[in-house]
Amino acid sequence: AAVKHFPIKQGVIVKREVGRVHAVEGVSLAVRRGETLGLVGETGCGKSTLARCVTRLHQLTSGQILFEGQDITGLSRSQVRPYRRRMQMIFQDPYGSLNPRRRVGSIIGDPFAIHGEGERDERKPKVQELMELVGLNPEHYNRFPAEFSGGQRQRIGVARALALKPSLIVADEPVSALDVSIQAQIINLLDDLQQEFGLTYLFISHDLSVVRHVSDRIAVMYLGQVVELADSEELHGRPRHPYTNALLSAASVADPDQAAARQRIVLTGDVPSPVAPPSGCRFHPRCPKAQQICVEQVPALKARSGDPDTHLTACHFPVEPGEDLTRVTATIP
Ligand code: SF4
Ligand code: MG
């Protein structure tokens, strides 16, 4: 995707200091209006927890969420309602998130019902309009989810998310359960809808190659922390964190265009438990560049020497362009 430049306005800011749960900790992320911010990391790194905190499906134990300039952190259920309708989620599993016994028209119309908009018969034309918008046949209003393919079911999820004209859509692995050919269709749909309605996306995926195609900026998470944040092209062209390099090298195996360009970096060891994360840099037990200071000191997420100030990396020894990480040996005593 081409890098787009949007004026920076108030967006969503998530701040979270050390909490009881370490899944998402010390994360401070601003999503700019109209952009797609990709959030990438392995399963269990805290991406979904972060997403649920943003939309207030999860309560933060500490920290702050600002949405369109408002602090919504401490709001009650009813107080948060007007904000919740402006931020909607799309989930990974189009099968699991749709009730099989309900008709598709009524599923898509749920947000109208929940937020008390219009009578049932007034909702039907609105729902059919939404169905058309996402490429579903409005005549299939009375069908059940089982009568739709996987890609169509995800379109149902998208239609439901759009019902209340949100400004932010948090898409949690929206295409991971779909065939590759269908993934592209859904991604194109999301892209078209973004253009048409000026939507802001927080796009979560474990798959860096998917995130690359949709994101203006990308945040890489590891064990509940953002370890690198940069414009999408910048991150791919000059990945600075060893973990980002490892993710990219893994992704390039599936992408023959890149296979020659990057050597595969094999991460050793398991992902440590987020309940008792490693000291210092959390990546140190698996990092080919780790040294003693990495065990002792948490690296700050900041612009590193030679990088634009929009490219932030949390690493004491950022990877230099051309550096061969497959030959580096860690020197922890
Ligand atoms: Fe590796 Fe050290 Fe950088 Fe962490 S701070 S990623 S252990 S080099
Ligand atoms: Mg886009």
UniProtKB/TrEMBL annotation:
The keyword Ribosomal protein does not apply. One of its GO terms (biological process) is peptide transport. Residues 8-248 form the ABC transporter domain. InterPro entries: AAA+_ATPase (IPR003593), ABC_transp_ATP-bind (IPR050319), ABC_transporter-like_ATP-bd (IPR003439), ABC_transporter-like_CS (IPR017871), Oligopep_ABC_C (IPR013563), P-loop_NTPase (IPR027417). Transmembrane segments: none annotated. The keyword rRNA-binding does not apply. SUPFAM superfamilies: P-loop containing nucleoside triphosphate hydrolases (SSF52540). It holds the Pfam family ABC_tran. Belongs to the ABC transporter superfamily. PANTHER family: D,D-DIPEPTIDE TRANSPORT ATP-BINDING PROTEIN DDPF-RELATED (PTHR43776:SF7), TRANSPORT ATP-BINDING PROTEIN (PTHR43776). This is Oligopeptide transport system ATP-binding protein.
